[in-house]
Specification:
Layout lengths: L4 H8 L3 E4 L4 E4 L7 E4 L3 H15 L8 E6 L8 E7 L6 E7 L6 H17 L4 E6 L2 E6 L38 H19 L3 H20 L18 H16 L14 H11 L9 H16 L10 H9 L11 E3 L6 H17 L5 H13 L1 E5 L2 H13 L6 E4 L6 H4 L11 E6 L6 E3 L13 E2 L2 E2 L2 E3 H12 E12 H5 L4 H10 E8 L14 E8 L11 E4 L3 E3 L5 E4 L1 H13 L5
Helix pairs in contact: 4-5, 4-7, 4-8, 5-6, 6-7, 9-10, 10-11
């Protein structure tokens, strides 16, 4: 469990004490007495976060809160996880049952029943269950059906609000960690997949539609103190909620009809539970890297092995883009011709946003125009699979780029065909290209006549029987790139070392100045089931003058932040990037 500044503040204020060595958290100044609990317990971690919220956001005093309250009339003895007492009449005001974050819907429903029973036994005014971001509360004497649920803990004994999440209010939407976001997305998918036994990928697209709706609602212009619409009102029927969610979706589809055309295929109760999972978090306030890591791992869990392309880890994409921090401007045109889920594009957009932070006040019209015009007019992607092109668009939307120039097409096909989809896909048009093309696939000449457009597909005046995709992508990038401008490409090492490919390497040297070759570790892509040893090349397209004798920066990275089991390790890439920048300034020193 990571400890934040919030934990430190409340440790200093004396409300909690954390002892990592003894694996315990001590809640202090409670109604009964100080109580110790095991910090590594997943349910305890949920209770700790909500306890801090109760005494900060919801303004309850620790002296009016107790933990592990014994239940009367129970054999054997059982306990309520947390009880808030009414400070004026010393009665039970709110009883809460806590569960760990990643429980199933069935487990949550059982916990809801337990929470209801605890509340009724203790004769509490309100009661309910919390599983991290997923909550459900009920009121004394009300029915315990889903239609009678509410989702807001009252601010210090107030009446529960009709709307829980209100812009600028005490209970506003909040950013989340990568782990929390991944858990919530997984729970939403599990809800849809389990209930109707849908195909796993089909269930994924239903989750994607809901994310699309939530992003649209968060980005929608609204005044302070106005409620978000993607949430369930107090005691709102599942039918009324479903009508509102469908209406938001219909409105959002008009913005980009190429992302989703089909309707939501969930029943009202199913849709309600998914909204319960997602309604508390803010996707727009959550950091780009956090969303990137969570969404990428979420995607991979459904699509690994389904395509012959694979993910570029977000930290590798960021590294490749950050090298050009001083160079890329918001008027440069950037392309990824094999964009898969769009991480090179997103990291470029993030770079331009960071530059906007340096030049203008955040939330100013100038700041928005600086990065938004770049996203609309200068950021381009191509993806061969319709599903993955849609994923790329969804990823862009998650990061507030609603005007994506991502097209669904074979990037190796004739460029003229691409212009029927987007006029800006032209030869020698792009200033920077960042790409990780698919490896090993053979393009056969008997099936694809566009191979005549490639020198690397020919032997003399005749076509070869086939050519590998990664080799063809080198030439396609050269065709798209302006003279004297740069590209970053990930290639399998065999292209650089195989003795039978000497002619390919000679073609590269004839058409590009190689600035950099960095060898990646064997397990760089292993987490995504890709086992090919690869390297990153930075190359500059020759124009008229070609150098015959120049230095190439070469490095080997043994560790790149994440290993094959997704555990964090040392990251050598930033240090290598600094050396490369020094090399560009003065190659003679190397």
């Amino acid at each position: 469990m990571e400890f934040t500044n919030t934990h430190k503040i409340w440790i200093e204020k004396g409300y909690i004490e954390i002892d990592k060595e003894k694996d315990r958290v001590i809640y202090k100044n409670l109604k009964g007495w100080d109580k110790k609990h095991r910090l590594s317990d997943p349910e305890e971690q949920v209770r700790l976060e909500w306890f801090i919220d109760l005494v900060t956001k919801y303004q309850y005093e620790p002296k009016d809160i107790d933990l592990e309250v014994e239940m009367p009339k129970r054999v054997p003895n059982q306990f309520a996880d947390l009880v808030i007492y009414n400070e004026w009449v010393d009665s039970k005001y709110f009883v809460i049952e806590f569960k760990k974050a990643n429980i199933t819907d069935n487990e949550f429903e059982q916990a809801v029943k337990q929470g209801i029973w605890n509340g009724r036994i203790l004769k509490s005014k309100y009661y309910g269950t919390i599983s991290w971001e997923t909550v459900r509360f009920f009121e004394e004497w009300k029915d315990d059906s889903l239609d009678d649920a509410f989702y807001s803990i009252p601010i210090k004994y107030w009446k529960p609000e009709e709307w829980t999440f209100i812009k600028g209010w005490i209970v506003d939407l909040e950013p989340v960690t990568s782990e929390s976001l991944e858990t919530v997305l997984g729970k939403a998918h599990q809800t849809i997949w389990d209930w109707w036994r849908r195909d796993k990928s089909r269930a994924f697209w239903e989750v994607a539609k809901i994310i699309f709706i939530k992003m649209w609602d968060e980005n929608k212009a609204r005044k302070v103190w106005v409620a978000y619409e993607f949430q369930r009102k107090r005691n709102e029927s599942v039918e009324k909620l479903a009508l509102r969610i469908h209406a938001i979706y219909d409105e959002a589809k008009q913005r980009d009809k190429h992302v989703f055309a089909e309707n939501i295929k969930l029943d009202d109760k199913e849709l309600t539970v998914v909204v319960e999972h997602l309604q508390r978090l803010s996707l727009t306030k959550t950091d780009l890297d956090v969303k990137g890591e969570a969404f990428q791992k979420f995607l991979w869990s459904f699509f690994k092995g389904d395509f012959w392309s694979y993910f570029t880890p977000s930290f590798v994409s960021k590294f490749c883009i950050d090298i050009f921090w001083e160079d890329i401007q918001n008027y440069d045109k950037v392309l990824d011709p094999a964009c898969w889920s769009g991480w090179f594009l997103l990291k470029t957009l993030d770079l331009i946003r960071s530059k906007a932070d340096e030049y203008y006040e955040k939330n100013s019209s100038e700041h928005y125009k600086y990065w938004h015009d770049f996203a609309v007019n200068n950021l381009f992607g191509i993806e061969i699979s319709e599903d993955t092109a849609r994923i790329a668009k969804m990823n862009m939307i998650l990061n507030e780029d609603w005007h994506t120039n991502v097209i669904w097409h074979d990037a190796l096909d004739k460029i003229e065909k691409m212009q029927t989809l987007n006029l800006w896909f032209k030869k020698e048009w792009f200033d920077y290209i960042f790409t990780n093309p698919p490896f090993w696939a053979d393009i056969k000449s008997i099936l694809k006549d566009y191979l005549w457009d490639y020198e690397l597909a020919k032997k003399g005046n005749k076509l070869k029987a086939s050519q590998k995709t990664e080799i063809l992508f080198i030439e396609r990038c050269w065709q798209f790139l302006k003279s004297e401008w740069k590209m970053v490409i990930v290639l399998p090492d065999w292209v650089l070392t195989n003795s039978s490919l000497k002619d390919i390497r000679e073609w590269i040297l004839e058409h590009f100045k190689i600035l950099w070759v960095i060898s990646l570790p064997q397990d760089a892509f292993r987490y995504y089931w890709a086992w090919v040893k690869s390297s990153i090349l930075i190359m500059q397209k020759w124009w008229i003058t070609k150098e015959c004798d120049y230095k190439i920066f070469m490095a080997t990275a043994e560790k790149i932040w994440i290993n094959a089991t997704w555990r964090k390790c040392e990251n050598e890439l930033p240090n290598i990037a600094n050396q490369f920048r020094e090399f560009l300034k003065n190659p003679t020193n190397f």
